[in-house]
């Protein structure tokens, strides 16, 4: 009964609906974009009405929100945080810096294209994106989750070697156990 | 045979009722707090969605045996406490096992779950969990004193430790215990502020300082178990207060009205209060609440 294809479809619909309407966000706020998160969460724009809520630790979070640029040093922390999160998990790239480097396009020390190191589900464009844009980004993510198309985590698992190669290229000296590096 | 069947069915109905009511109250509290902050707020059923999502998440965290058992401890303790609290007066379906438990047993069971959780959180090795556990146990030492004093005052005054007897006494005399022993009620309500762990007493799971404290290593199904058990436990505490101080309830509507009235106290107090530090919280409980507890005992002994 449970392995039946049609009943699995019903379970998927219910699961996707609940995932869509309950998004717990872990904001990785080292970039300047973090300043747009408080107005998004508080009285003026109130993201909680969409079910978007802050999570305190990676274990409880569904969405990793990367606000702005990542240096090669902070990329290490982001990778550890991302790998601690439980499936299903999503990544939102926030601001121009995560798309093409933004104003740091010629910096020697920052990550230009985030998608080469982490599977990004939704990008929010802008420098800075206003809270309206952030809410629109969350709406897009909800749409994708509802359709079951936000599958960044599976992409990461399938193409792990490619991602690892890219990560190792920018972080040459990182002592991590061999089995997960 | 028929009696056993009724009891078993009644238990299942009670657990489902406690889960639904507790979850709805938590959703309502999120909505009300949002309205106080001039926000629209999540829908009332948001907590059910959260729980469904948490259940559908996969979990691959392993810190050892006790970490897996900790949430189960919480759940078991909540359900045990629910079983010995009479939900409705003289009702076959919600009587449960209240004949075999009394206030002293209940006092023990109410700290059993948090202690199991403390063991589980300790094994995760997360320093935030350890700090959260120490804070939680210190806070428990704080609010248990006025709470036990209030209950002991009632036990001395009416010469019984049974919840059902207290209900019968209130039915016979026609007044609620919150009027006939007011000091015990005040001490118990002030202790309840700490028991619910809303701010200003949310020092255990303070998300901004401790990354949610004892639960910081638990996601997915563990968090699902904890959320469900905390909603059941909230219902238990509310029903216990209604039973002891407000004469119980004869039907479900009255039960909901009375429990929600009690629930508004910690929620609204929390909505306008910032968080205490640990020593401030303990000093609070050992101040006026303990004083009223002592007054209640003197009142019970003298009158």
Provide a descriptive summary of the structure in words.
The complex is a heterodimer of chains A (181) and B (303). Chain A has a single domain (24-173), classed as 3-Layer(aba) Sandwich (Rossmann fold), CATH 3.40.50. Chain A has seven helices and five strands; from the N terminus they run αβαββαβαβααα. Chain A has helices at 5-21, 37-41, 72-84, 96-100, 131-147, 152-158, 160-170; strands spanning 23-28, 52-54, 63-67, 90-94, 122-124. In chain A, helix 1 packs antiparallel against helix 5 (131-147). Chain A is globular. Chain A starts with a helix and ends in an 11-residue tail after the last helix. By secondary structure, chain B is mainly alpha-helical. Helices cover 73% and strands 0% of the residues of chain B. In chain B, helix 1 (2-36) packs parallel to helix 11 and helix 10 crosses helix 11 (252-271). Chain B is globular. The A-B interface holds A 14-15, 18-19, 21-22, 42-43, 46, 48-49, 51, 53-54, 56-57, 59-62, 85-88 and B 30, 34, 37-43, 46, 49-50, 52-53, 56-61, 128, 207-208, 210-212, 215-220, 223.
CATH architecture of chain A: 3-Layer(aba) Sandwich
Q: Which structural class best describes the helix and strand composition of chain A?
A: alpha/beta
Question: What is the mean predicted local confidence, pLDDT of chain A?
Answer: 87
Low-pLDDT parts of chain B are none
CATH C-level class of chain A: Alpha Beta
Number of domains of chain B: 1
Oligomer kind: heterodimer
Classify the secondary structure makeup of chain B into a structural class: mainly alpha
Q: What is the C-alpha radius of gyration of chain B, as a whole number of Å?
A: 19 Å
**Major sheet: arrangement of strands of chain A:** 2-1-3-4-5
Write the layout of secondary structure elements.
The complex is a heterodimer of chains A (181) and B (303).
Chain A: H1 5-21, E1 23-28, H2 37-41, E2 52-54, E3 63-67, H3 72-84, E4 90-94, H4 96-100, E5 122-124, H5 131-147, H6 152-158, H7 160-170
Parallel strand pairs in A: 1-2, 1-3, 3-4, 4-5
Chain B: H1 2-36, H2 46-56, H3 65-83, H4 103-123, H5 127-158, H6 163-173, H7 177-180, H8 182-196, H9 207-210, H10 221-245, H11 252-271, H12 278-286, H13 288-302
Helix pairs in contact in B: 1-10, 1-11, 2-10, 3-4, 3-10, 4-5, 5-8, 5-12, 5-13, 8-11, 8-13, 10-11
């Amino acid at each position: 009964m449970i392995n039946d294809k049609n009943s699995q479809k019903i379970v998927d619909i219910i699961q996707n609906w609940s995932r869509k309407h309950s998004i717990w966000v872990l904001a990785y706020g080292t970039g300047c974009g973090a300043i747009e998160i408080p107005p998004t969460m508080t009285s003026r724009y109130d993201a909680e009405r969409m079910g978007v809520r802050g999570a305190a630790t990676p274990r409880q979070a569904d969405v990793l929100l990367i606000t702005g640029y990542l240096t090669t040093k902070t990329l290490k922390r982001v990778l550890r945080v991302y790998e601690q999160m439980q499936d299903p998990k999503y990544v939102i790239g926030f601001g121009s810096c995560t798309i093409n480097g933004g104003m740091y396009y010629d910096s020697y020390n920052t990550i230009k294209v985030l998608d080469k190191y982490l599977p990004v589900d939704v990008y929010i464009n802008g420098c800075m994106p206003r809270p309206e844009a952030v809410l629109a980004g969350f709406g897009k993510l909800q749409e994708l989750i509802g359709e079951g198309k936000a599958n960044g985590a599976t992409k990461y698992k399938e193409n792990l070697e490619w991602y690892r190669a890219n990560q190792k290229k920018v972080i040459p000296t990182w002592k991590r156990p061999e089995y997960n590096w | 045979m028929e009696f056993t069947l009724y009891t078993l069915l009644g238990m299942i109905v009670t657990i489902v009722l406690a889960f639904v009511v507790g979850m709805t109250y938590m959703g309502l509290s999120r909505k009300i707090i949002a309205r106080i902050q001039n926000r629209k707020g999540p829908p009332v059923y948001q907590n059910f969605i959260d729980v469904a999502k948490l259940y559908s998440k996969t979990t691959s965290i392993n810190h050892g045996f006790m970490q897996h058992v900790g949430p189960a401890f919480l759940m078991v303790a909540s359900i045990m406490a629910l079983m010995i609290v009479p939900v409705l007066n003289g009702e076959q379906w919600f009587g449960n096992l209240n004949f075999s438990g009394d206030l002293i047993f209940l006092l023990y069971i109410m700290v059993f779950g948090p202690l199991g959780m403390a063991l589980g959180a300790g094994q995760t090795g997360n320093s935030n969990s350890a700090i959260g556990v120490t804070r939680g146990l210190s806070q428990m030492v704080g609010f248990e004193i006025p709470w036990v004093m209030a209950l002991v005052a009632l036990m001395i005054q009416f010469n019984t430790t049974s919840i059902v007897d207290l209900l019968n006494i209130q039915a016979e005399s026609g007044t609620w215990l919150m009027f006939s022993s007011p000091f015990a009620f005040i001490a118990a309500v002030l202790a309840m502020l700490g028991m619910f762990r809303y701010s200003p007493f949310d020092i255990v799971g303070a998300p901004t300082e401790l990354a949610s404290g004892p639960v910081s290593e638990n996601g997915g199904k563990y968090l699902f178990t904890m959320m469900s058990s905390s909603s059941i436990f909230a219902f238990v505490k509310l029903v216990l207060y209604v039973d002891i101080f407000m004469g119980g309830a004869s039907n479900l509507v009255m039960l909901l009205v009375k429990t929600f009235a009690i629930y508004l106290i910690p929620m609204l107090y929390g909505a306008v209060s910032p968080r205490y530090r640990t020593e401030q919280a303990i000093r609070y409980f050992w101040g006026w609440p303990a004083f009223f507890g002592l007054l209640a005992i003197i009142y019970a002994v003298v009158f």
